[in-house]
Amino acid sequence: MRHSIFWFIVALLLGSAPLVQALEMDAPVPAYTLNLEGGGKVTAQSERGHVTLLHFWASWCVPCRAEMPRLEKLYQKYHARGLDIVAIDMDSDEDQPLAREMMAHYHFPWALKSHAEVDELGRIWRMPLSILVDRKGIVRQNAWAADDDQGLPESVLVAGIEPLLGAAPVPIPASGMQSGTSPIIQVLHPMARATAPGQEEGVVYLTLVNPGDREDALEGADSAVADHIMLHQTTEMEGNMAHMAHEYHLVIPAHGQVTLAPGGHHLMLEDLAHPLVAGQTVPLNLHFQHGATVHVDVPITPLVP
Fold first, then answer.
1. How do strand 83-89 and strand 51-57 relate by DSSP bridges?
2. Of 29 and 181, which is predicted with more confidence?
């Protein structure tokens, strides 16, 4: 209740002032830096080439609670096509535990306001509120918000986001070459583990080789056999229990390689459509920051007793 009264008073004091004063439509987005929970950093520069939705929210905000599941649905649907959603939590210190609890249900990255350098974006006084930026870093929606307590409808979000994404990427075989002079990322030794009946998660290991002259990064994956795929890193083991951290991209150095293997990075296939059976394959599309989408059929090895 105290939060609602506070923001109501702020609204009265500001009158008809713009929601995000420093931004101009169809102009470059100002500099910002978001130090993400769980590690990693997002900046205006790092997001060039992506469609970015910066979403300001708080755990006590009723329309925020209504809007967040819609953002999750869009993130799952469009992330592989270049949509990044980053939530900036505006909670006070005392409410941050609740914010962490809520964000555990979503897969897009987020940052606390104390870890976000967003002063150049202007004054944020209404929530939820979003800023939509296109692939060239141009602001396409400023102070994007609903006029009621239900948040932006999914249809409105799709209508604003989808035209900025363009056509879906066409998968290119792992043995092919992307357009231009840079070779695509090569995939070596892919392997998936068979799953037990009723098991809802699977895992994929592989090695990514970058023969190009600039670094690239694995930014996502999708498969017809899983509802969504997460990039995880095993951080520590306690007995037979592994603790894992969710990561949003994995850098592959120029003329270098990275290996996803047990005890380290791996791709977690979540909400499997059916069990993974030894001798069959997992169709997998890998999405990279600079390179083309790579398709690989991952062999499934027998379940380890």
1. parallel
2. 29
Q: What is the CA radius of gyration of the chain?
A: 21
Residue 202, both tokens: 């699977």
| 144 touches 151 (CB < 8 A) | no
- The CATH label, of 3.30.70.1050, 3.40.30.10, 3.40.50.20, 3.40.50.12280, for the domain at 2-165 is 3.40.30.10
Q: What is the pLDDT of residue 42?
A: 87
Whether pLDDT at 189 is above 70: yes
Query: What superfamily in CATH does domain 172-301 come from?
Result: PCu(A)C copper chaperone (2.60.40.1890)
The rounded distance, in Å, linking the Cα atoms of 58 and 194 is 41
| pLDDT of 146 over the 60 cut | yes
CA distances from 179 to 107, 140, 182, 184, 211 (A): 31, 29, 8, 9, 15
Residue 233: HSE in the Cβ half-sphere, 13 Å Cα cutoff: 11
Task: Specify the pLDDT at position 173.
Answer: 42
The band of 158, judged by pLDDT with boundaries at 50, 70 and 90, is: very high
Tokens of 68: 């967040």
Q: What is the DSSP letter of 213?
A: S
E strands, the chain, are 33-35, 41-43, 51-57, 83-89, 110-112, 116-117, 129-133, 139-144, 172-173, 186-193, 201-210, 216-222, 226-238, 241-247, 250-252, 256-260, 265-272, 281-288, 294-301
